[in-house]
Amino acid sequence: MGDHFELDFFKSLYKRLPNDKRVISILAEIYTHSGLIDEGLKLDQKLVRIDSTNALAHYNLACSLSLKLRFKDALSSLKESIKLGYRDFNWMLEDEDLEALRETTIFMKLKKELGLL
Predict the structure, then answer these.
(1) DSSP string covering 29-56, please?
(2) 2-114 falls under which CATH superfamily?
(3) Among 33, 54, 73, 91, which one has the highest count of C-beta atoms within 10 angstroms of its own C-beta?
(4) Burial of residue 13, with CB atoms counted within 10 A of its CB: 0-12 exposed, 13-18 middle, 19 or more buried
């Protein structure tokens, strides 16, 4: 029941504040964790458009893209997040949202580039 309340609350808040970065970020996360990957992806893409220098926004977009099995796009967003200052590499190597991406050779190459092997 709590999940539906939270989802409904933030959907309502988003309707009133469609460009509020915090609301977009929270709603995107709720969507993703509720299995509504497409909705989460759309909001992650919007957040990157309106806050292009936000490393965490790019990281979250990479996660959504990975969940959609769009690995090249996911890797591109992940690299952008790192370029912008994302440094939680331990989480990157454990985050379930990136699990499918981590199985790819392109991710292995990134790990090598970052010295994480």
Answers:
(1) HHHHHTT-HHHHHHHHHHHHHH-TT-HH
(2) Tetratricopeptide repeat domain (1.25.40.10)
(3) 54
(4) middle
Residue pLDDT tens, the chain, 117 long: 456 899 999 999 999 999 999 999 999 999 999 999 999 999 999 999 999 999 999 999 999 999 999 999 999 999 999 999 999 999 999 999 999 999 999 999 999 999 987
- Give the integer Cα–Cα distance in Å for 41 and 97: 12
pTM: 0.93
Both tokens assigned to 22: 């915090």
Q: Where are the domains of the chain?
A: 2-114
